[in-house]
Amino acid sequence: MPQPQPSRRGSQFAGVSVAIVTPFKNGAVDVETLKAQVEFQIAAGVTGLVPVGTTGESPTLSHEEHERVIAEVVQLAAGRVKVMAGAGSNSTTEAIRLTKWAERAGADAALHVAPYYNKPTQEGLYQHYRAVAEETGLPICVYNIPGRTSRNIEPETIIRMAEHPNIALVKEATGSMDQASQVLGATDLTLLSGDDSMTLPLISVGGEGVISVVANILPKELCGLVRSAVAGDWAAAQRAHHRLFGLCRQMLSLATNPIPIKAAMKLLGRDTGELRLPMTPLDAAGEEKLNSLLMEFELL
Description:
TIM Barrel; two-stranded antiparallel ribbon
């Protein structure tokens, strides 16, 4: 029998949260499709929704659109699942403003990507997150994805951040099991995978779930994997992992997120597939590969 694990600071967000896409129609946010997506995810049993993150194309949204998407998702969720609103920025002042707005709108937590482009030092990263945490009562999820930001938040820096009670979670997307293990061993932060294919390995060292892209189309499958792993049913979890692994990796190889997931949702009749520049649709060869992949997975 699996032994009960000590409760971690952000454990209310354990499970599967979905980094939902922002649907567009004729250049504008498509609220009706957004509503359908929220209901689809809640019906599938996810723990939470993460609007206006990377998958939600937050860099291309105006501030008004960003705020509207958060407000719509909070209202639609209506307390049935947690809402972790994307509020990150490479400007600390802007990150604080977005976080305060998300808190007023009723979000349950705020996701904060490491400041990008300006490449702060480790001290700058620490001061950035501490400044945000000081200005809100929301739990803060530190999103560490150096492949996009060009700056890793080192484990020692995250351990320092954990001294602040409002910093509660880490979305781990470094690909380093050593880094994840170091953070989990030295803090009571909840760790969530930021890479679908790394979900099971991270749970094996103490992670508690995932903020998932692929769950936009396969929420039940991701929920099943996480439930099995957390319950200690490793055989079932491994079967789910190996089934999903190929899809996750092959979709990622087609183009930068969220291009493939939006294309998949279009093929499944769940989104227009419309993107905002500088993101562009898959070419014909990419669409053909994606179509074959979805057919292999018996989604089409």
